[in-house]
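Sequence only, no structure available. Ideas?
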Amino acid sequence: MNLECHARKGQSILVWRANYAQYDFAGNLQRWRTEVDRVTMAVFISLFPVLGLSLAIGALANRTSSCGVVAVKHWRDHGQLDSIFGLVLAAGGAAIAILVLGGLAPSPPASEGGTPLLMIILGAMLIGVGAVMNDACLLGSLSRLGDGEVRFFLVFPGLALGFWAADFLKPSAELGLEVSQSLAVLPMPSMANLALAAFAAGFVWLFWPWSHEGANGAWPVRWSMPIFGAIGGALFCLYPSWSYSDAIHKAVESATRMMGPKVSALGLACILALSLGARLAGMRNTTHAWTSIDAKSGLRSLGGAICMGFGGALAGGGNDRLLFWSLPHLGLAALLTYGILTATIAILIWRSPSVPKDLIP
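Reply:
I predicted one. Tokens follow.
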């Protein structure tokens, strides 16, 4: 019996050796390398523009007047509306980019149904309150982080807590009148609304008496903001989840559904590219050192981010998505949301003490 078993084992070894000798390792290895190279090249071609544009928009966020809080403060302290009208130019630049690239790449799907009007109002007000509490909106937080202000790192966990609270509480959708996310100013295809937004921005660009400098030494609004908006619109066409608030929201949603916090590699890479771009731009303009953080300012950033996350979940997106995607399409819900959050910021800031005139740079 033992001899028979040994014979069978020996026969199996011989068969395995024969198959091993016939296996084309070199050919299969070459085919595997070719497939890897093909996939790598495809991934590289698709990732390169997204990461490059993310790096650019991070840098421009640091060097432009992209923050609504800063824009309103500049209006209060200097009596200039350039930074506020610059947001119109950014939306117009995004509209032009979407017109050019919208048919070439996937874009965020239109929201089905509507959002209760009360949720839009409450969400927009919370975004505005959170932005003032944090001293910066989502785009402004990226800019301040680029300047080396450590407390704005707390915006990331704050947004996650705000999104989690909104998903956990799940406010009732039966709150009265609903506003459709797809309803726009013109009851026509989105191309017409995009063209109208671009035309309105072009009118402002031509006829508004622009100053030569942006708020707090930023680049001239008339030239920087359309470019800033065009890059944001292009990013939404190429990769709708490039925004760091969207990536955090998706991670929180998957975690609350017991699937684990899932963040795509590209989404994480976009967050890193945005932060790196802002920091590189900030290092060229300010000191290379990181600033210290105290408990009061840290709690303000954390609490403000929680408000912005909760409000963004209610209203259907933060100010970055509103500025670069929803406003260029002239969505009525987006116009209402952005108008309410801007009014909230203005009311809160105008009620706070202004900077003495002799200290204004």
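Confidence is low (pLDDT under 50) at residues 35-42, 107-112, 355-361.
Hope that gets you unstuck.
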